[in-house]
Design a protein that fits this description.
With 218 residues, this protein is α+β, with helices and mostly antiparallel strands. It has four helices and eight strands; from the N terminus they run αααβββββββαβ. The mean pLDDT is 86.
Length: 218
């Protein structure tokens, strides 16, 4: 009979892939040119944050039958009842045991958010990232999280945003100057322009069989 000792669990595999991704980010940081290093380093820090956010949500999902918090009823420890309400922070607080620190929830370039090391503090004033409450583990390309400067008009917005078409979605200039970062359900993170964001939204709508993409923006 074969021993199961030392076998890789799914959590181990996800953590290993995330570690490799973080190492790649560190090597990229070391290779930054001197010109614009500070701005690029901030952007890479934001990508690093989102990789840790994606890892936290995925780790939580593994322990809950491959469901993200917004798919799990409160009676089972999830946030499903909050999925239609404009409370993005509740999804991140629930997964706090999977995050090293609440500091990763603040983008370095988000001037209107302040980093905190205290989970007991109101998270709304520190949270720079939206929760993609349409995301499913079964759709690797589903948008899981991203910078909060995403909008369906010219202004940065907050609350529950529903995108049933992709052409009106764009990044505002508020954080990354008409650009932003997206974390996907497979744990990957991409730096995107507004056009790339629209393509990602369109792909998600198609993957959801023409259902809307919903983002809970803090």
């Amino acid at each position: 009979m074969c021993s199961q000792e030392g076998a890789f669990t799914k959590r181990d595999l996800v953590a290993f892939i995330a570690t490799v991704g973080m190492l790649a980010l560190f090597l990229l940081y070391l290779c930054l040119p001197r010109t614009g290093t500070k701005a690029r380093a901030s952007r890479i820090n934001c990508v690093s944050n989102l990789k840790q956010v994606a890892l936290g949500f995925r780790m939580w999902s593994i322990d809950h039958e491959e469901r993200f918090p917004w798919q799990v009823p409160a009676s089972e420890g999830g946030t499903k009842e909050f999925a239609t309400l404009p409370y993005a922070a509740v999804h991140f607080v629930l997964v706090s045991n999977e995050f090293n620190s609440p500091k990763i929830l603040t983008c370095p370039d988000d001037a209107n958010r302040s980093r905190t090391a205290d989970w007991q503090a109101p998270l709304h004033g520190s949270l720079s990232y939206f929760a993609g409450i349409s995301a499913h583990e079964t759709i690797p390309s589903a948008i899981l999280s991203g910078d909060r400067n995403v909008s369906t008009n010219a202004a940065m917005t907050a609350g529950l945003v529903t995108a049933d078409k992709s052409e009106n979605v764009r990044w505002t200039r508020d954080i990354h100057e008409h650009a932003g970062n997206i974390a996907f359900a497979d744990g990957s993170v991409s730096q995107t322009t507004s056009e790339m964001l629209r393509r990602a939204i369109a792909a998600n709508i198609a993957a959801l069989t023409n259902q809307s993409v919903r983002l809970s923006i803090p």
